[in-house]
Structures are given as structure tokens and as C-alpha cells.
Amino acid sequence: MTPLLALALIADDPNAEILRAADAFDAAQLTQDRAAMDKLVDDGLIFIDGSGKRQGKTDFIEGWMNQGDKYDPLVLVDRTITLLGPDAAVVSAETELTGESGGKRFASRFRYSDVFRRVGDVWRAVLIQVTRIPPKSGG
Q1: Burial profile 27-50: b = 16 or more Cβ within 10 angstroms, e = fewer
Q2: Tell me, what's the pLDDT at 5?
Q3: Is the pLDDT of residue 110 over 70?
Q4: What are the DSSP E strand ranges found in 21-138?
Q5: 98 CB burial (10 A radius; 0-12, 13-18, 19+)
Q6: pLDDT at residue 8, as a whole number
Q7: Among candidates 126, 117, 120, 127, which has minimal Cα distance to 18?
Q8: 36 to each of 67, 122, 123, 135, how far by Cα in Å?
Q9: Which among 136, 122, 133 has a CA at the least distance from the CA of 22?
Q10: CB atoms < 10 A from the CB of 71, how many?
Q11: Given this model, what pLDDT does residue 12 score?
């Protein structure tokens, strides 16, 4: 398949736009890009963290902004996209977030579901649900 044909197939994929938005959202978190996160997170965000606590936009963004924290690239497993209409979708995957915090390595394995809604020309996260799962054996 030629690269141009591959791009044409991606452009015709109904999930391509939401996948770009979800990837941008993940990148904003990992790079601690506050401006991008502020744009990509809805003001009315409902964030259910891994302990079941309900939080909002400010708490979610601040949780990524600890100085000295560094995040490794994510590997997403079993990523799914569920279109809820032309302006809403759920993106879900399993991952292990790894990096360094306070000078120490950390790892947290979880499954998440991000609900996005298109507002104008921007897809924004309106609901995030995180469920912690046990680390893989041997890890």
C-alpha cells in the first residue's frame, strides 16, 4: 500500500478525528502542557479517579502538573472507540503509566474511558473514568 493510499484510508476512517483528539489529549498530559489540557478538558469535566473519588477539571489538570514528574510514553492495549453520534465518542484502553516522581520510579496499571464531546471544532474530554488493575505478574 502506498503512503498516499494509507493516508486516504485514514481520512475516510470515521474514527480518525477522535483518535487524533485522544492522542493529543494523552500527549498534553504526558508533556504536562497546561495550555493544551485547558483547551482539551471541558470546564464541567467529571473525573472519577482510580479510587472512585469524583473530581473536576482543576483537580485533573493539577494532578499532571507536579514539578519534577516525568512520564514515559504510553503503550495502549485493547483501545476501543465507541461513536455516540457525530459530536460524541468514548475512547477506552488499558495502559501502564510509568515515569518518575520525587526522584523515584513509579508504575500504575489501569483501564480508562474518556468521553469526548465536540465543542465547535475542538474535541473536549467531558468525563474520565479510571479503574486501577493489578500489575502484570513479574512486573
Answers
A1: ebbbebbeeebeebbbeebbbbbe
A2: 45
A3: yes
A4: 41-48, 54-55, 70-71, 77-85, 88-101, 104-119, 122-132
A5: middle
A6: 44
A7: 117
A8: 17, 11, 12, 30
A9: 122
A10: 17
A11: 62
Contacts of 28 (CB under 8 A, 6+ apart): 36, 37, 40
Band (pLDDT 50/70/90 cuts) for residue 135 is: confident
CA–CA distance, 71 with 121 (Å, rounded to integer): 28
Give dist(CA 114, CA 53) in Å, integer. 16
**Contact call for residues 133 and 110 (beta carbons, < 8 A):** yes
Q: What is d(CA 139, CA 130) in angstroms, rounded to the nearest whole number?
A: 20
* Its pTM surpasses 0.70: yes
| Structural domains of the chain sorted by starting position, each given as residue range(s) with its CATH number in brackets | 3-132 (3.10.450.50)
Q: Kindly give, in sequence order, each residue whose CB lies less than 8 Å from that of residue 112, ignoring residues fewer than 6 positions away.
A: 92, 93, 95, 128, 129, 130, 131
pLDDT confidence of 137, banded at 50, 70, 90?
low
Integer CA distances (angstroms), 12 to 81, 94, 119, in order: 15, 26, 22
